[in-house]
């Protein structure tokens, strides 16, 4: 009889441990990596670490959106945002990319903490009226999604030096080379890059939505 009691106790103990482990697993918070350079090698680092001060961040910028409003880095202070690059006359992937980003806009339409920022890579051609027309075509919500134009050099510099656009193709570009990338980037509240996705793939946009929800849990 004592043997049976010992076996029963052992079984109950194992069940309790298993349940406890399952509960702990459910309470673990997934942390997104940081991206510091054009290789897009993920780096996991504690924000309390001294090395966190060396994490790459998006620098100051100033552009004009589809409503003729000046949009700066301060527009995104304390916000999570999604950045990409396009041009309104693009006959191919830009329309697919913008259409896919509409899924992200829809997912967070009522969440003021989530914004989108699309930079024109043909700013000399993409005037404010053209951006406005393009915005209407894709049901862009004013204040939620900014389509911006500006000085070509400023856009290309921030694209390649801050967002690492084009650089992942393995060839160093100069300022005269046309900028073309399908990458969509997730930027956190502190202006750090936390995710890189292919904007032409709808499945990647679903991953982006999931990662935004994960990022929202961070302070």
TrEMBL record:
Pfam families: SCO1-SenC (PF02630). Residues 1-24 form the signal peptide. CDD domains: SCO. The keyword Zinc-finger does not apply. The keyword Signal applies. This is SCO family protein. Transmembrane segments: none annotated. Residues 52-217 form the Thioredoxin domain. Keywords: Copper, Signal. InterPro entries: SCO1/SenC, Thioredoxin-like_sf, Thioredoxin_domain. Belongs to the SCO1/2 family.
